[in-house]
Amino acid sequence: MQKFIIGLALASTCLLAGFASAAEIVVVVNPKNPATRMFSEQASQFFLGKSTMFVPLDQAEKSQIRADFYQRLAGKDISQVKAAWAKIIFTGKGVMPAELHSTAEVKKAIANDINAIGYIEKSAVDDSVKVILTLP
């Protein structure tokens, strides 16, 4: 019986962890930015250094939202993203996105820069940002 209870507790923990990483992630810009909608392929251009039209902002390197974001956006894990950026930096074609340490910091930076683009949890959206893409 004790093994059953321990197994049930482990299964519940795994299930809750799955829900935590299943939070909706949205790509956001400054409300004054003229962009109204974007496809995943377009957004990945900014976050993977293939376009400089927007100034991308990243969440903290070890955060779950960052890992989930790149997996959902481009099907890449963090090590693949780092490798892509290493090539860009080595060739002098760009600099990595600024790393911010919270959703609040991302929203504040976007509110202060009409060209900034970032990602946050959908539940954190307010009038300081405009959603242009919701990731599945």
UniProtKB/TrEMBL annotation:
Residues 1-22 form the signal peptide. Keywords: Signal. The keyword Signal applies. This is Phosphate ABC transporter substrate-binding protein. It comes from Duganella qianjiadongensis.
